[in-house]
Write the structure tokens for this entry.
Amino acid sequence: MSRQWSIIGNQGFEFMGGINASISHEIKNVLAIINENAGLLEDFTFMVDRGMPIDPERLKSLAGKIQHQIKRADGIVKNMNRFAHSVDESCKNVELGEILDFVAALSARLIINRGVTLDIDSNAEPVVVMTNPFLLENLIWLCIDFAMDMTGDGKTIGVSCKKTPRGAEIKLSELDGFGSMTAADFPNEREKAFLEALDGEMTICRETGEILLVLPETIKAGR
Amino acid sequence: MTEKVLLVDDEKEFVEVLGERMKNRGMDVTTTTSAMDAVKKVTAESYDAIVLDLQMPEMDGIQALRAIKKIKPEMQVILLTGHATVEKGIEAIKMGAMDLIEKPADMKTIIEKIKMAQVKKMILVEKKTEMKIKKIISSRGW
């Protein structure tokens, strides 16, 4: 048991670090755009000082661009805060469609950099399970990361969830490259540690190119 | 002398606004949001400096830097990064980058680096031309 938690602990730090690096990179990009827009406004004031006319519409457009970037930064920081609070409770009700959207938003930059697109089909009906949110987010990311390795650049990965009689299921589909994969590749010791902690199961369907992550309606107490 | 600059970043709004500010300062600026397109542009055109983002989809800044240096070794590349660490700076310089600038960047710093790049490139091109002339003279046996 202690080995399982040691694996989860190390991976958890890695996940936190990776997501934080990605988020801070996004914030820097937003700041860089705001900085250039503010600089352009300053350029305009110098032009006006020299008697050059400035179209008020340009100023309006710049103000709009700055406001848009502030909204973008606000969304990034909100996600960052929500992510930081995922470790607050080790067991709570989570809606899987929402968690899938959240993990995709958190890792957006990492996914874009790999040249992959996620096609998330959040179920119209809420799919709620009682689980450990941080461990689930981490395991979903490990599945997406592996799926991206499998599919490669320029591909789309389908992600969906649904209710099952025993709980719920998350499916990653449209995965190419399973043919070259060996049974030992995935899930490996790391993913198995997460599956055990979440009372989950994972099935790899090579023929259909799918990863199925099966979760119980409620994880056992004390996890 | 007008500096000819290629500006590469996957953030469209960033390259558009920075490009406009550089043009306002008399530079000849071309922008692109794709590193692959930048490599194509370098094959077809010559620039005094290339300002290149380090993290981009399809091809990251380091890969693009390698490709550019392979096509035109005299090209001066200034890398832009969200987080400039000493390690990253050393890695970039080892790879052949002229410099590394952290985002958000100060316009004065960008302009200084571009002007420096233009001088460096001119020296390299002059040296290359001198070597070519020497080679021609020696091969003719004058």
Summary: The interface with chain A takes residues 10-11, 13-14, 17-18, 20-21, 24, 55-58, 60, 82-83, 103-105, 107 of chain B (CB under 8 Å). Chain B has a mean pLDDT of 90. The CA atoms of residues 71 and 115 of chain B lie 22 Å apart. The radius of gyration of chain B is 16 Å.
